[in-house]
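Contributing: when you submit paired examples, paste them exactly as shown. First protein:
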Amino acid sequence: MKADDPAANRSIISFNANDVISLDGIEFIKCEVLSQSFMLHQIRKMMGLAVAIMRNCAPESLIQTAFSK
C-alpha cells in the first residue's frame, strides 16, 4: 500500500498518557491508544520514535522523514 492511497489513512480515536511511574530509577508512562485498523506494530513504532526523540536518541527531523514519500 502506498502512502497516498486513501485506504492508507488511519484514525486514532483516543490517546491517554497516565502518570509517570519510576521503576529502578527509570521513568515510565503508560500510554493507552484506541485506534482504527492500524498496520501491525505501527503505533508501537510511532511511540518508539516519540520516546527516542524525547530521550535525544533521534533527531526531531526524523518525523518529517518518516512522513515523506
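Second protein:
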Amino acid sequence: MDERLSVIYKTLVKNFYRLLEDQNLPAVVECFAEEGYFWDVELSRRYRGGREIAEGVAVYFTAFPNAHRELYEMHVSGAHKAVVVVELSLNGTQQGPLVLPWGIIEPAGKNIHVPCCEILSLEDGKIISYHCYIPYSMLLRQLGK
C-alpha cells in the first residue's frame, strides 16, 4: 500500500476514536457512510443507519463516560476501499448502567482494561463497516459479574 494512503486512513481512524472519546455522538455518526454499520460481534448486534448507530454507541457512552481507547497496533490494507485492523484496549470506569441484550448491569464503579480488536472498512473517507470484537467475559469479570 502507498504509505501516503496508509497515513490518511490511519488519521481518519484516529479521528474517529477521538470523537468516540469526546462522546461527540453526531460527529461519530457523521463518520459513517449512508449504508455504513456498526457490528458488536460478540453480542450479535448490528446497528445500521445513523439512528441505530447512535443508539448502539450511546450504550457505552452512558456506562463508561470516561472511556479511553489505548491504540497498540494499526494495520491498513487496500487502496480505494481500505481495511484498517486496530488492536487496542478499552479502558474506563463503569459509572452508568450497561445495557446488554440479557439485562442491565448497574454501575459498579469499577475500572476496566479490556483488550479488543476492531476492524474498520473505509471508502471515500467514510466508514462502511465497524466490527468490534470485545471479550465480554473479560469485561464482565472486571465488573465483578
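If you have annotations for the second protein, write them as plain sentences, like these:
The longest helix spans residues 3-21.
DSSP finds four helices and eight strands in the chain.
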